[in-house]
Amino acid sequence: MKRYLVPLFIFVVMAGFLAVGLQRNPREVPSPLVDKPAPAFDLPQLHDPAARLTAEQMKGRVWVLNVFASWCTPCLAEHPYVTQLARQPGITVIGLNYKDRPEDAKGWLRKHGDPYAKIAVDAEGRVGIDYGVYGVPETYLIDKQGVIRHKQIGPITPQALMQTILPTLRKLNE
User: pLDDT per residue over 71-97, tens digit each?
Assistant: First the structure.
């Protein structure tokens, strides 16, 4: 009788873990960078490759880092919401063009509009790795001290914009 209890116990424990796992949203992968300083970077700017853009230059203001690429279909879906975000007072939206050719990115922005205050070029994806980018698009909300306060995985949706992103940015700007 006892020899059946151990496998039964193991089965019950594993079924419990499975039940808990099935209740979670796979898009909500917690980022170890939230509440930590944003990784430093020093990259050329898309529209002026001789000029550099660094995370250090952004200290003292609330800013949004939006990781995008011309080849990214979900980036196009979120683009109107990034544009809406960029129109908010007190918010600076910085683009991080990820693993893209500069001429493709410029053409995409000409066609769809350029909401970014500045755009850094991460051609090799090294900065994306530092930020823990799982895939584009991703968006980071960064406070005045340069600390990441929220990470949006996947495209910005109207719900995410209204319920999470804008309220968080308002709070950071207080």
Answer: 999 999 999 999 999 999 989 999 999
